[in-house]
Design a protein that fits this description.
Helix content is 43%, strand content 17%. By secondary structure, it is of the alpha/beta class. It folds into 2 domains: 150 residues, NAD(P)-binding Rossmann-like Domain (Rossmann fold), CATH 3.40.50.720; 159 residues, L-2-Hydroxyisocaproate Dehydrogenase, Chain A, domain 2, CATH 3.90.110.10. The protein has a 9-stranded mixed beta sheet with strand order 3-2-1-4-5-6-9-10-11. Strands 7-8 form a two-stranded antiparallel sheet. Helix 1 packs parallel to helix 11, helix 5 runs parallel beside helix 6 and helix 7 packs across helix 9. The longest helix has 22 residues. It holds the Pfam family Ldh_1_N. Its EC number is 1.1.1.37. It comes from Rozella allomycis (strain CSF55).
Length: 327
Amino acid sequence: MHNILVPVKVVITGAAGQIAYSLLFHVCSGQIFGNDQVRFMQIPSMISQLEGVRMELEDCAFPLLNQLSITDNLEEAFKDADYAFLIGALPRKQFLRGMERKDLLKSNASIFRNQGLVIDNVAKKSIKILVVGNPANTNAYILNKSTPSIPSKNISALTRLDQNRATFQISKTLGVPNVVVWGNHSNTQFPDPKHALFDDGRQVWPILKAKFDEPNFIETVQNRGTDVIKARKLSSAMSAAKACADHMRDWCLGTKQGEIVSMAVVSNGNMYGIPKDIVFSVPVTCNNGEWKLVEGIELDFSSKKYFESTLNELKQEALDAEFVFQE
């Protein structure tokens, strides 16, 4: 935690896009880092596209927004940064128009490789980084490999959107549970309700399975992003920004007592059999700016199949990404 009135520097890439546009309000209003933090906002992007955004932020008169800078220079942007939301990437809607996922990875790998090298050189070593641009897990894997001086625990990828989507499928009729999302932010992700508990301690799964069979529930969550694109002709923005805010707020300010959240984090090689350095969504709690793995969750036979499927995809993506370290 930072001292009162000591500015924190927040970097948001891809700030001309829809996710960032929705996220800016959460950041500047104090919903993420607390109401006692003034902010120095740095936005590396195409300057001409963001002048209108700058004016809107100024017109909001946020008392916590101490300074706003827009730059196309990565060194200037990440210099002494405390937090970074890495949103900028080739958008998913282009991926759906014929690109394979590995093509999306190759198109975005150099972006995160270059950002990682700069972050390693100029950012604070305590920086907390949330990777949002897809494929988020493997982009975070590339970033981690490119930032040897930044602790791996300070790099994460966004799967909170998947958790929020799963929570809604349950809670729209049944109340709010702690549901876990395992694995990749892709259509192999495994939203797991079998160990979730309602706030009153009741188990979610015995009630949920009367309304969903397991494959139907999982596929509904897995395909929600595609369904959003089909409906609005654009990818998720408002819900993704809310998930970014949820993720970083819990990481920085802590989860509630008894609350479990999903974060895609860098494996240390001793996390549910996940190989070292793979960025995999797991259940965590957060306290004092640190996340802690929730251990001891046992997976049944069908759950293990989903778990292995998403793990195999991430291992293959890691292999596909190796080219970027040879350039």
